[in-house]
Design a protein that fits this description.
The complex is a heterodimer of chains A (about 425) and B (about 140). Chain A is α/β, with parallel strands linked by helices. In chain A, about 30% of the residues lie in helices and about 25% in strands. Chain A contains 11 helices and 25 strands. In chain A, the strands form 8 sheets. A 5-stranded parallel sheet of chain A has the order 5-2-1-9-21, covered by helices on one side. In chain A, helix 2 packs parallel to helix 10, helix 2 packs across helix 11 and helix 7 packs parallel to helix 8. The radius of gyration of chain A is 23 Å and the shape is globular. Chain B is about 50% helix and about 0% strand. Chain B is built from 7 helices and no strands. In chain B, helix 3 crosses helix 7 and helix 5 crosses helix 7. The N terminus of chain B is likely disordered. The chains are: A alpha/beta (about 425), B mainly alpha (about 140). At the A-B interface, helix 1, helix 2, helix 10, strand 22 and strand 23 of A face helix 3, helix 4, helix 6 and helix 7 of B.
Chain lengths: ~425, ~140
């Protein structure tokens, strides 16, 4: 190992200026197989970058859905300025350009000892596993939502797809003068500013098509958790009198027959209800034995995203416990750190120092204006976590320029994940 | 999770130190002769070590991390800096030009949105390493 490392460093320093490209001369052992479970922002990025940086690795991506549907921008489907089709992309390029083997299947179990996965009809083995499971919803604390039929009637629409369309259709069918109620779970949850953007988008739709309709927002948190001043300004100036915001309101029960939602403060009635339930790492993370924080999230080493409970299993994206927001952009960034670490391990290199990466998030207040928040995170060796370098920056107010750049962000990150 | 919830920026200590390193880089780039030079001399002119601001990153650290550092740009600027639309293509930008843009974003000389904030989060050595990485790529036609 030391000899290899010395040779590696000599090779790097030989090329002076171009050495910073860092294209490794060391190659991975042929046939090292990395399996990635989950083809969202995190998993698809990991699969692509593993092949990009480790061309000798065999990379298999397992994803149950045929298409990639972007959660970012899916609130615009509710507002009416995007269709779900605009947000639906394919996985073909990952195979055609990068040689990622795609398997559209369900993972029914993981055996970490034997390093195998049970798919619906066969078993496959791995040398190293990356889990990008995303989130599952926790319905335990909300009476009435145990029933799957109620979950259809009262969509969360928090995973872009059929439920997004269902909620849009319910809004279209709502009478003028009706009431839309949405609830926000306690942090941490996927996409912190997302619910407040949703309130804007629904208000945007209602303001023009059902001007007498009103919105109730029940937030389990003590206040708006992201971009507070900017959202409040947008609500007051663009949608005066439409949005009623109630902090510290945790939903405990839902009655779909009477369309009533219960919190400690009382009962709220509405015509269309959208409960965004509390969340945890999706089931596959639990079956892999990597959930070790609050029985919900996965603790990882932020230099490699390897689980702190299971060697050889890495976890990325919304499922991890961290200081980082649960966003598609973060999953994309974490995936690259994970891929770089796996390639380094497979080629006997060593990654020195810690990662630095940026997060940018755009929230649309209507069809043409948005608010951005940006933050750069750097690995802190003392706390062994990712810490914000100098805090976040939020637009002073919603602008058309930010909405234009939101489009740029979406186009480029989709391409970075899938092309 | 607290980091994106509207807190004020981090502790003044480390930020001030970063600031001082940046002042050195700005001083180097600030002289009219240094700005916009795209000749071979530029590499010595921008040699951070000779100006006493080479910091904790050693050469091998830079090499190991630059691919990962620049990969963060990809979310908005495309894989390896080949933007697919609206944002500038970073691949093939001149080294000096890239550094100058980052310096100008940081000072506000170049107006922007996200970049004014993000440019100031990176160290001079990181900026220089990223500039080298993108400068070494062809401007167009590279297979990602």
């Amino acid at each position: 190992m030391p000899i290899k490392r010395r040779r590696f460093l000599q090779a790097l320093s030989a090329g002076a200026g171009l050495a910073t490209l860092g294209l490794p001369a060391v190659r991975a052992a042929k046939g090292t197989r990395i399996v990635v479970i989950g083809g969202g922002f995190g998993g698809a990025t990991a699969a692509k970058y593993l092949r990009l940086w480790g061309p000798d690795l065999e990379v298999i991506l397992i994803e149950r859905n045929r298409d990639f549907i972007s959660c970012p921008q899916s609130n615009l489907v509710l507002g009416g300025s995007r269709t779900l089709k605009d947000l639906t992309l394919g996985y073909e390029t990952l195979t055609a350009r990068h040689g990622v083997q795609l398997v559209h299947d369900e993972v029914n179990g993981i055996d970490p000892q034997r390093q195998t996965l049970a798919l619906s009809e066969k078993e496959i083995s791995y040398d190293r596993l990356v889990i990008a499971p995303g989130i599952d919803f926790v319905y335990d604390g909300i009476a009435g939502l145990e029933d799957p039929a109620v979950r259809e009637a009262i969509p969360h629409a928090w995973k872009a797809g059929p439920q997004t369309i269902a909620l849009r259709q319910q809004l279209e069918a709502m009478p003028n003068g009706g009431r839309f109620l949405m609830s926000i779970p306690r942090m941490p949850y996927r996409c912190p500013p997302g619910p407040y953007e949703r309130a804007c988008q629904v208000a945007f739709f209602l303001r023009y098509s059902k001007p007498k309709a009103r919105i109730t927002v029940l937030d389990a948190n003590p206040g708006i958790v992201a971009k507070q001043d900017q959202f409040l300004e947008a609500w007051e100036e663009k949608y005066p009198g439409i949005i009623e915001y109630h902090p510290n309101q945790e939903v405990t029960a839902v009655d779909s027959a009477t369309r009533t939602v219960t919190t400690a403060a009382g009962k709220f009635r509405a015509d269309v209800i959208n409960i965004i339930p509390p969340q945890r790492a999706a089931a596959i993370a639990h079956s892999a034995g990597v959930v070790n924080v609050d029985a919900r999230w996965c603790d990882v080493d932020f230099l490699s995203y390897e689980s702190t409970t299971r060697k050889n299993i890495h976890v990325i994206g919304d499922a991890i416990a961290s200081t980082l927001p649960k966003s598609g952009h973060m999953a994309n960034a974490e995936a690259k750190v994970c891929a770089a670490a796996i390639v380094a391990m497979a080629t006997d290199q060593r990654l020195v120092g810690g990662p630095v990466f940026a997060n940018t998030c755009y929230s649309h207040v209507n069809a043409s204006e948005a608010i951005h928040i940006s933050n750069v995170y750097r690995y802190d060796p003392v706390s062994r976590s990712m810490q914000s370098v100098h805090g976040n920056m939020v637009s002073e107010q919603a602008t058309r320029l930010d909405a234009y750049y939101a489009r740029a962000w979406a186009m480029n990150i989709w391409s970075d994940v899938l092309d | 999770m607290g980091a994106d919830t509207g807190q004020t920026p981090g502790a003044p200590g480390p930020r001030w130190q970063r600031q001082s390193r940046w002042c050195c880089l700005l001083a180097v780039l600030g002289s009219p002769a240094a700005v916009g030079a795209e000749t071979g001399e530029a590499s010595t002119r921008f040699n951070l070590a000779t100006h006493g601001i080479e910091e904790t990153l050693s050469t091998e650290d830079k090499v190991a991390n630059v691919r990962l550092l620049t990969a963060s740009c990809a979310a908005c600027h495309g894989t390896n800096g080949y933007s697919v639309g609206i944002t500038p293509v970073l691949a093939g930008l001149g080294r000096d030009y890239f550094i100058q843009q980052m310096v100008d974003f940081r000072s506000g000389a170049r107006p922007g949105t996200v970049m004014n904030h993000n440019a100031s989060a990176y160290t001079p050595a990181e900026i220089a390493a990223m500039a080298d990485f993108f400068a070494a790529l062809p401007r167009t036609g590279c297979d990602r």
